[in-house]
Amino acid sequence: MPRVRVAHVITRLCTGGAQENTFHTVRLTDRTRFESDLFAGRTAGAEGSIEDIIEAEGIPVRHVDGLRRNPNPWHDLQALRELTRDFRDGRYDIVHTHTSKAGFIGRLAARRAKVPVVIHTPHGHIFDGYFPRPVSAFYASLERYAARFTTRIITLTQSEAEQHLAQGIGHEGQFTPVFSGINIEPFVNCARFRDEVRAEWGLNPGDFAVIAVGRLEPIKGFRYLMEAAARVVTRVPHARFIVIGDGAQREALETEAAAMPGVVQFLGLRRDIPRLLAGADMLALPSLNEGMGRVLLEAGAAGLPVAASAVGGVPELLDDGRYGLLVPPRDADALADAIIDLATDDERRIALACAWREKVVPAYSLEAMVARIESVYDECLKEARK
Asked: Backbone phi, then psi, for 363, in 5-degree steps?
């Protein structure tokens, strides 16, 4: 029986949860049943790239030169033509698009190429925090249009599906929540690195280390973490903040942190996240918008309690505060209070960490995620053959 041909399309392969989710979906999908190709625009910039990791796994990246993050009519039409041609030539059974830009152009190309099944994973949404309100409204209108010829929309959480429906995008039967899984093993076994990592950071035995991981872009809210840090150290003088990632805001954030000598360290892009989490006492996620917050799962598997903005699918993931502290976005004081709470209440910190780890392991594995995605493929193919 011939294998099902699947084309995955994503705008770029920078360091990020959506990109890793897409990569692992391609890597782990049953190759005896599915033949998957990965299409992406060129990746450049301070946010790094995972293309070398992907290619080391024997997965070639098929570059679409016109597919770029910023809107440009000429490039967008070029990408549409390229993808339409490739989908026709490849005779794909499924086109699975990821993120907003690739999601719109890729789905339009799939429709033009008459691909039987079209699936889209937004990996969150762009309705809040990214653009001025009129621009967000325009992009929501594009999502409403693309949903008309989308077989299924895979969201990371049920909350994300509800947020799309609230914008008039698609209908309830189109949405299927599938969490973003993680490779659990490196995180559950990372504790052995704790002493050496803390020594690298120059921490004293009693220091309380807060780690934050993400792109240093406005949407990730790191400016509010810096404001919170300034308040935290007035109450918890031994608090230290470790920031992992890079992006357009790094210089501005480092300038702000310079007013707190010895309090904040910026380590740039790193690939040893499990090892680094071992050196921390908690994780902070100050984002203004998140589909789910994949790093929260990584922290949970590593045994860390979390304090996170109540945005996107985060409240659902943390069961409205049962598994971690939730704070309003853009509220540095509330974030500072949550960090101080975890730094000064050992019993609560340990209880939250244990409960969160018990929920994450092993339910949020990559294998469980991919098995669910494969079942969505099977359901959609069955519907298309009727």
From this structure: -65, -30
Q: Measure the CA–CA gap between 323 and 234, rounded to whole angstroms.
A: 27
Q: What is the pLDDT of residues 204-236, one digit of tens each?
A: 999 999 999 999 999 999 999 999 999 999 999
| Alpha-carbon gap, residue 70 to 45, rounded angstroms | 13
| DSSP three-state, residue 3 | coil
Q: Name the percent of the chain lying above pLDDT 70.
A: 99
One domain for residues 194 and 333: yes
Which are the contacts of 140, defined by CB distance < 8 A and separation ≥ 6? Answer: 127, 167, 168, 169
The enclosing domain of 207 has a CATH number of 3.40.50.2000
pTM here is 0.89
Q: Which amino acid is at 270?
A: R
What is the predicted pLDDT for the residue at 124?
A: 80
154: Cβ–Cβ under 8 A, 6 or more apart, which residues? 119, 120, 121, 175, 176, 177, 178, 373, 376
Residue-wise pLDDT tens digits, 276-285: 999 999 999 9
Residues 378 and 354 both lie in one domain: no
C-alpha span between 184 and 359 (Å, rounded) = 12
What confidence tens digit (pLDDT) does each residue in 158-187 have?
999 999 999 999 999 999 999 999 999 999
Report the domain count for the chain: 2
Are the C-beta atoms of 43 and 49 separated by less than 8 Å? yes
Q: How far apart, in whole angstroms, are the C-alpha atoms of residue 51 and residue 252?
A: 28
